[in-house]
Design brief:
324 residues, mainly alpha, two-stranded antiparallel sheet, two-stranded antiparallel ribbon, 4 strands, 73% helix
């Protein structure tokens, strides 16, 4: 029995440690390569990683069979929380502001989680979209939050040290990559956990999950809060990199871009999600440069091509099963 138990534990732990090693190696490689990248490329990857965190929340919910169209709400909440704490309270540490943005988004989303956990399909999508647009309307009207123009955020510090002008972009790049790596690894562990497998089973057959003793509503509510936390992290990191926050962070088109990334990646792979977010940023940047008046059409054509030839997303190129 002891040998069998040890074997079972080992067979579960090995993939976790393998994922951890690959995550650390990838983070280290990206951090080192950032030294030699031009500033425009490090900024592009920084924004791609921050937006990828928001889409990671969508991926968590997609594995349960629902697609939120309101991640712009938590994206904006995380950004406004970081900006207000920096300007009004005086908190300037980038890592602390990032965590505060994630926690604030999760706290504000938590009261809505029990309600949203009861809905599926178009009803879930429209309710989340409604929450995002209500947030947008409030941000547009509240002059204390800058109204339609928003406001700027001061330069953050890191561990009590001021960020030098020539290295601030690179430091934010490394911080964003590091936070994204940690969250991607934790998401991978969560997907392989009992709760994550219940979520996957919920997508297939909710009634059978209930018969087996699992709580579908509780699982969906927890996933919604986790998705909000991821969105808040992404929003705070994006705001600190941009230096500005405005209500458009919560607009429906912003939420649509996050869904675009999730569809482009597919729901099987976490790595594919951040790769898809980078691809979106690259396509958008070059399309807006060469086709300034029709870059949205270029994005649409690109998505149609991916759906036609990779209906399960970019992740299906290397993931053949359904659990990864």
């Amino acid at each position: 029995m002891a040998n069998n138990s040890g074997t079972a534990v080992s067979s579960y732990a090995t993939p976790v440690w393998r994922s951890l090693v690959w995550a650390l190696l990838l983070c280290l490689a990206l951090s080192i390569s950032g030294i030699f990248m031009p500033k425009w490329l490090t900024f592009l990857i920084t924004m791609a990683a921050a937006n990828g965190l928001v889409s990671l929340g969508i991926l968590i919910l997609m594995r349960g069979g629902v697609v939120p169209f309101g991640q712009g709400m938590v994206f904006a909440i995380g950004g406004y929380a970081a900006a207000l704490l920096s300007n009004k309270v005086g908190i300037s540490d980038a890592l602390l502001l990032t965590l505060c943005g994630g926690v604030m988004a999760a706290l504000i989303a938590a009261p809505f989680a029990p309600l949203l956990s009861r809905y599926r399909g178009i009803f879930f999508a429209m309710l989340t979209l409604a929450l995002s647009m209500v947030t947008y309307g409030l941000l547009m009207k509240l002059e204390v939050l800058g109204g339609s123009d928003g406001f700027n955020i001061g330069r953050p510090t890191l561990f009590g040290q001021k960020l030098p002008d020539e290295h601030v972009g690179y430091i934010m790049y490394v911080l964003t990559i590091s936070v994204s790596t940690v969250m991607a690894f934790l998401a991978r562990v969560y997907f392989d956990s009992t709760r994550g497998l219940i979520t996957l089973a919920t997508k297939e057959n909710e009634l059978r999950v209930e018969y087996l003793g699992g709580s579908v509503r509780q699982s969906m509510a927890i996933n919604f809060i986790l998705a909000a936390f991821c969105g808040g992290l992404g929003g705070s990191l994006a705001v600190m990199s941009l230096g500005h926050i405005e209500p458009n962070f919560s607009f429906w088109t912003t939420s649509g871009e996050f869904v675009f990334v999730a569809i482009l990646a597919g729901w099987q792979s976490v790595v594919a999600l951040f790769l898809a977010s980078t691809v979106l940023e690259v396509v958008r940047s070059f399309s807006s440069s060469y086709f300034p008046n029709t870059w949205q059409m270029s994005l649409g054509i690109f998505l149609l091509i991916v759906i036609r030839f990779l209906p399960r997303g970019i992740g299906s190129l290397w993931v053949k099963g359904d659990s990864r």
